[in-house]
Amino acid sequence: MGKQNESSEIVKDRIINVATELFAKHGVNGVGIRRIASEAGINHALIIRYFGSKDGLVTEILQRKISTQTGTYPRKPEQSPIKMLTELRKTLLNALVTDENTMKLIVRSGLDGLAPESYVDEKSERAANIIAKWIASQQTDKKLPDARFVSAVVIGAMFSFAAIAPWLMTAVGLPPEDFEKRKEDIMDVVIWMIARAIGLPSDTDVNY
Description:
It is a single chain. By secondary structure, the protein is mainly alpha-helical. The chain contains nine helices and no strands. It has helices at residues 8-26, 33-40, 44-51, 54-71, 81-98, 100-111, 127-138, 147-171, 183-197. The radius of gyration is 19 Å and the shape is elongated.
């Protein structure tokens, strides 16, 4: 079924890409190994050989994706807040554009009962915590909101839009099909929230 002379890594990557899309659309429990294999153009036995089980496949997908995502978040405390916010906006926007399926998969896998501890490496720092630490490092007023909650709200908004954008858009009177065109606007609001949380005045010019 698969192409001859393909390396195991190429085949594994194809399985992961196909499975990520299917899981994101239909949920982990809604997709079987045989369907993944069929759409990846391989024998289903290869999935068992490479990943052990469907749960093993889901775990590897999330480990890879989360590791890649986390590695792209800015970690330069010497930069000015404005520069950092500009870089953070680019990073978050890229995540919303390119990692929609990953975020959907994380939401769906949680609803299907997969515990985060099974796929999050304890030694790896999560993106939400990186953002929280940076926000906290910039705050000089104790009256500002808890940086951890700010980061949780920001990441929660990202996941919500990725998972249920049509519902959210409709709920506020916006056409659901406008979601793709309004991702820049969503990110402007996210960065505005972070800017307020670190104490920047509302008229601060953040160069997007």
